[in-house]
Amino acid sequence: MSSTPGSLLPTDLTAVPLTDPIHSGGIGGHPRGLTTLFFTEMWERFSYYGMRALLTLFMVTAAARGGLEFDTKKAAAIYGTYTMSVYLLSILGGFIADNFIGARRAVLCGGIVIACGHFAMAFGSQATFFGGLVLIALGTGLLKPNISTMVGSLYRPADERRDAGFSIFYMGINLGAFLAPLITGYLAQSAGWKTQLAAWGLNPLHSWHWGFAAAGVGMTLGLIVYVAQRGRLAHVGLAPADGARPWKKLGLVGLASLALIATMYASDDHPKIILAVFALQVVAVLGFAFRPGQDSKRIAAILVFFIAAEIFWAIFEQSGSSITLFADRLTRNEAFGHSFPSSWWQSVNSIWVILLAPVFAFMWIRLGPRQPSSPLKFVLGLLFVALSFVLMVPAARLTAEGRVGPFWLVGLYFLQTVGEMLLSPVGLSTMTKLAPQRLVGLVMGIWFLAAALGNKLAGALAGEFKSESAAELTTFFWHQAIGVGLCALALFALVPWVRRLMGGVR
Length: 506
Ligand code: GLN
Fold this sequence. Notes:
CATH topology of the largest domain: Growth Hormone, Chain: A
Bound molecules: glutamine
CATH architecture of the largest domain: Up-down Bundle
Strand content: under 5%
Oligomer: single chain
Order of helices and strands: HHHHHHHHHHHHEEHHHHH
């Protein structure tokens, strides 16, 4: 990708006087365009997380209860491949925007494709189910990276409000992610809605599809906001002006993305592929680290962060698979004397983000130059996600006596969100700082690739989830906690080396 969050700025923005409403008038005095992108992304994430909250449960539910009746392994593999593709296609989506249609049109096209995908899933056949997943992955690849770079484009290069703008945007993401499972989960799983459907003479087994349709309605609302307020974004995300269109490169990026998806898909039957891909990453780190030149050393550091992030997401992204199954089958889903659908648990991470993000912002400002270096923050991120699974060890043991109380999962999500705050936003900003200027866009794509591979790994790990045996479940959490804990230790030992590779960037 040629463009970067910084360089995407259209030259004419710097010419617009600071008093122009383009620069302010939005949330918290930010550019008005931020409000539009905030609500568009809020609804897009509403649709993504709303559907994701149901996906695993729908696949494993018995056909007699309206589900697809897949076994856990198959469901986790499909879930892993789907969530991987969503993030992996960001590289293709970014490339298309940068070289062909511009971010603004890419977001519009992406949103339309996503909405079609969700509405396809509102129908009851396996063809529309899988077709819908493909459409959502393609559409998200177009929308997600480009809406993020458009946020960056709203600010002049030296604008101090940029980081705060991204934090507000991250809040929009989590507002959507918080609300969605509450609504889609109610429609798909609650007895109340099923009774309502029956009263209307409709089939209550189709409740899942009402949930999927609600996700589509969310994306449609996002599109309405985006189109209605397009005037506020008229100056950003424009298509490249020159006529040359790199069709050949587009073909190559598309083929490489497909080949990677196919390779990782094949890892469901040949797990050694995962080890080989992992070994390749380690070789790449060493290859760059021992090449002369500061740029190579920084790329080696980026790749170390890449591996750490991949491992982090491999645990964190089980939220929609193994952790949802734990919530559904082994947790008492009750609060204040009322029971609630198991999919509602997926809102809890977002509640913690909304509560903790301001605490972290305050803490980083307070600590200033005394705050830990970014590799150390990554170590802490890994440690917290490992601790979240350590917490689940006694919970898993207790399942031998029946369903456990809800506070175990509240604790798990708290620890995971602390880890997320230490790794996810820090990772984004570290990538932009470390990337050689001409490669920032590509490095952003690589950051999403770490999320993609982590999601696939999460699917593979969640495939081992066994709710029937407390002993096996204990091992499930314990082994992963130890594995990630050891990775955190290894990264801790490497911190001084990584800092040297970073060459002065903190
Ligand atoms: N939760 C964030 C989002 O949905 C980050 C996800 C990720 O990068 N894996 O945008």
